[in-house]
Amino acid sequence: MAGKKKKTPENTIAQNRKARHDYFIEDTFEAGLELQGWEVKAMREKKANLTDAYIIFHNGEVYLHGCHVSPLITTSTHIKAEPTRNRKLLLHAAEITKLIEAQAKDGYTIVPLSLYWVRNKVKLKIGTAKGKKLHDKRATEKAKEWDRDKQRLMKNNFN
């Protein structure tokens, strides 16, 4: 029996579903992105992918690396589009220092979680995350299955 695909809100461009599976997310931050015109148009068509993306620090600035934005044929005719270029994240200085301190802790990393629209601006939700071990992944999967079975049992008991 095929499960239903989860609906994403209308303002969501892309999600990194693998991040919640591989990491315990602790703190989240909302960052703006420095984009080019063709990238914004491609994101309106939901042509972005965050699965292999990660966050890097360079000269006190934060960049999104590995995010693939597929260029639209109609909009990028006169520009040489680079789909996986580093995109600068727009954050306050205090947020950047919190992220640098979080990454300095042992076992922690900064992970992009989702791209979405806020009042015609593209925002990126990033989180400080600690990697899950194999037994942790199994435990969360077991808990999810138990919740599903519980819902199914409750539904059958009331009908």
SSE map:
Layout: E1 12-15, H1 17-22, E2 23-33, H2 37-44, E3 48-49, E4 54-58, E5 61-65, E6 68-69, E7 87-90, H3 93-104, E8 108-118, E9 121-131, H4 134-158
Antiparallel strand pairs: 1-8, 2-7, 2-9, 3-6, 4-5, 5-7, 8-9
Provide structural commentary.
The protein is built from 4 helices and 9 strands. With 159 residues, the protein is α+β, with helices and mostly antiparallel strands.
The helix content, as a percent range, equals: 25-40%
- Biggest pleated-sheet summary: 7 strands, antiparallel
Run of helices and strands:
EHEHEEEEEHEEH
Q: What is the CA-based Rg, rounded?
A: 19 Å
> Helical stretch count?
4
Structure summary, number of beta strands: 9
**Mean pLDDT score, rounded?**
84
Characterize this entry briefly.
The chain is of the alpha+beta class and 159 residues long. The chain has four helices and nine strands; from the N terminus they run E-H-E-H-E-E-E-E-E-H-E-E-H.
Based on the model shown, name its key terms.
single chain; 159 residues; alpha+beta; seven-stranded antiparallel sheet; two-stranded antiparallel ribbon; globular
